[in-house]
Specification:
- By secondary structure, the protein is α/β, with parallel strands linked by helices.
- It has one domain: Inosine-uridine Nucleoside N-ribohydrolase, Chain A.
């Protein structure tokens, strides 16, 4: 089965414009990632996974975002639970809807399909060189790689949000990896280009009051809604942390690692996923040893972001679509 693809970048794609499938679980920061992807990539599809909220809600939220942006990107729903673990969501951060904090409209359309894995495989077989950009649990991506052994040689690579040298859902584990460690282990071991925007870099990228004010100052309904969402998102972070000046806006960094690589410092590391530890399940173990016998790198780990410049990219993308 072949699926229609839609380019949502406002200028014709060129050699420097990555073609991506955004795999997400919207989620406030996922919503921002969709805006950036719509402006700066050839966004050939959005696939959804259970994570920040149940699959029905994450799919609904992705459809709402395509409506607000006025784009016809195909949306396909995927896995409603992890490979092994029971489904666990993040209403304590994003609210029960996944996008609490704004009066969002109902979506005007349904999803294009309910088999995200098939969509990923067929799309990447039809068009080589697509980047997979997962910013939620890695279930869909792992299932696609497991189902289609040729996929790793047809995609340009994987740029993900997840992991870090510290955790947020546990002392050791970041939420996306913790939610489905078995899937994450498969992705980190897939053998192709891999970029990781983990907590070390995303916690440098906070929606501070001054940055949210830049969104609030923009005209249009989209800017108003996203400012409301960022206010809610930041409030949950600031009440749950000792020293956060706003929410960590994690997910857009996985997109900008492809579209604006000059904003990042990157270290090549070998990274593995702990799947069995009593206290460390879901941990991304980043090998930072100076020993010669360490394993060769399998991952470009983002270590630093030029945060003000990166947030300006977000503001400009919102301004483009807000009217």
């Amino acid at each position: 089965m072949l699926y229609g693809m839609s380019s949502t970048n406002t200028s014709p794609p060129n050699a420097s414009t990555p073609s991506i499938i955004l795999d997400c679980d919207p989620g406030h920061d996922d919503a921002i990632a969709i805006v950036v992807a719509a402006q700066h990539t050839n966004l050939v599809g959005i696939t959804t996974v259970a994570g920040n909220a149940p699959l029905t809600m994450t799919t609904r939220n992705a459809l709402i975002m395509t409506d607000l942006l006025g784009i016809d990107t195909p949306v396909h729903s995927g896995a409603d639970r992890p490979l092994v673990a029971p489904p666990r969501h993040a209403g304590y951060v994003h609210g029960e809807s996944g996008l609490d904090g704004a009066d969002l409209p109902e979506p005007t359309r349904g999803a294009n399909g309910d088999n995200a894995v098939e969509f990923i495989i067929e799309t990447c077989r039809t068009t080589e060189g697509i980047w997979l950009v997962p910013v939620g649990p890695l279930t869909n991506i792992a299932l696609a790689l497991r189902t289609a052994s040729d996929l790793k040689d047809r995609i340009a690579g994987i740029s993900l949000m997840g992991g870090g040298s510290f955790g947020n859902r546990s002392a050791a584990a970041e939420f996306n990896i913790w939610a489905d460690p078995e899937a994450a282990a498969m992705v980190y071991e897939y053998g192709g280009p891999l970029k990781m925007a983990g907590l070390d870099v995303t916690h440098q990228f906070q929606a501070t009051p001054d940055r949210i004010a830049k969104v609030s100052a923009l005209p249009g309904r989209l800017a108003e809604l996203l400012a409301d969402l960022l206010h809610f998102f930041s409030a949950t972070y600031m009440t749950r942390h000792d020293d956060m000046g706003g929410a960590a806006v994690h997910d857009p960094l996985a997109v900008m690692a492809l579209t604006h690589p000059e904003l990042f410092t990157i270290a090549q590391r070998h990274v593995v996923i702990e799947t069995a530890g009593e206290h460390t399940r879901g941990m991304t173990l980043i090998d930072e040893r100076a020993l010669i016998e360490r394993r060769p790198p399998n991952c470009d780990v983002l270590t630093h972001v030029e945060a003000d410049a990166a947030f300006d990219v977000i503001v400009a993308a919102i301004a483009h679509f807000s009217n």
